[in-house]
Design brief:
The chain has about 350 residues and is of the alpha/beta class. The chain folds into 2 domains: about 10-210, Alpha-Beta Barrel (TIM Barrel), CATH 3.20.20; about 220-345, Beta Barrel (Lyase, Ornithine Decarboxylase, Chain A, domain 1), CATH 2.40.37.10. It has helices at about 10-25, 35, 40-50, 65-70, 90-95, 105-110, 135-145, 165-175, 190-195, 315-325, 325-330, and strands spanning about 5-10, 30, 55-60, 75-80, 95-100, 120, 150, 185, 220-235, 240, 245, 250-260, 275, 280-285, 290-295, 305-310, 340-345. The strands form 4 sheets. Strands 2-3-4-5-6-7-8 form a 7-stranded parallel sheet. Strands 1, 9, 12, 15, 16 and 17 form a 6-stranded mixed sheet that branches. Strand 10 and strand 11 (about 245) form a beta hairpin. The longest helix has 14 residues, at about 10-25. It is elongated and about 75 Å long. The protein binds pyridoxal-5'-phosphate. Pyridoxal-5'-phosphate binds near residues 80 and 206. Pyridoxal-5'-phosphate (PLP) binds near residues 205, 206 and 208.
Amino acid sequence: MATGFLNIDLGALVSNWQALNAKCDGKAGAVVKANGYGLGAGRVSGALAAAGATKFFVAAAEEGAKVRQAVGQDAEIYVFSGHGPTDTGIIAEQNLIPLINSLDQMTRHFETLAGHPFGIQLDTGMNRLGMEMSEWQAVAPIALEQGPKLVMSHLACADEPDHPMNAYQLDVFKKMTDGITVPRSLAATGGILLGKEYHFDVTRPGIGIYGAAPFGDATPVVKLDLPIIQTRDLAEGEVVGYGNSWQASRPSIIATVAGGYADGILRAISNRGALWSGSTRCPIVGRVSMDLITVDVTDLEHVPDALTLIGPHQSADDLADVAGTIGYEILTSLAARYKRKYVQP
Ligand SMILES: *Cc1c(COP(=O)(O)O)cnc(C)c1O
């Protein structure tokens, strides 16, 4: 069967990283978790390493191997989830740097991999990962004696510049880390855009590199075309798809397109979203099914081989708005079965 065609512009990706890196005076690492936000952790990390990135961040130790292979032995690869019970082997083999989240993890790290590099993750109010103030105060002397590579925390509301949580977390982070000599990191993409006081020594952009909000000046990285498998003519009054949720109010041409919710095209955009042919909007009619979408192409002068779901007239963020989600979810849901083409920088 035909599958979608995903074009990934590594040149745009690199220019987004460079633009973010320039905003924070060359302090940017790169977050490549979740298979490089769906775009391919190996390809993405390799391109960014070639452009000068030296610090990479993944969510789980298992994700580190692919990145290590792409970036070589010298780059630093940090693991947000830290050092879990099953992570010791892979941390050692791939030379990963766990970001220690608790006293438990710290004990495990020192007992199993004494002398192996580590970082510290602090919780400054998000209540997700990291040590809180009291725990940190208790272990800081021991931890600092072992020379952590990085001390970091994460902002909960950085995509809302006016949110009072930003200044609050900045203040807590300073209270927890002022006076220590270890490099510090607080900002992801949103935090970079908040300004210099949030940058500290290292920043951790993710989504902005991949061309999505909140980095408004990003260059789009992804284009997704879905092939048309079949078209048919409908008379006024005929219905389309599961549940007969759409009925033709005029004689219509309906294209059946390869791609469905199994490809990360969220079912929530049934009868609401659209695909594009050049600059013509072609509405999705009927329900998105597992592998197929039905699209009203009546207004096209001629029916093309494929329609565009993500492209110049509809960004991943636009699509996210229609589905009631965020660009992050659209990108990380992109199907493994799409044919992928990488455009080199
Ligand atoms: C995902 C993540 C990032 C990157 O965030 P973006 O909003 O994609 O830039 C940075 N730090 C941590 C801890 C994360 O979980």
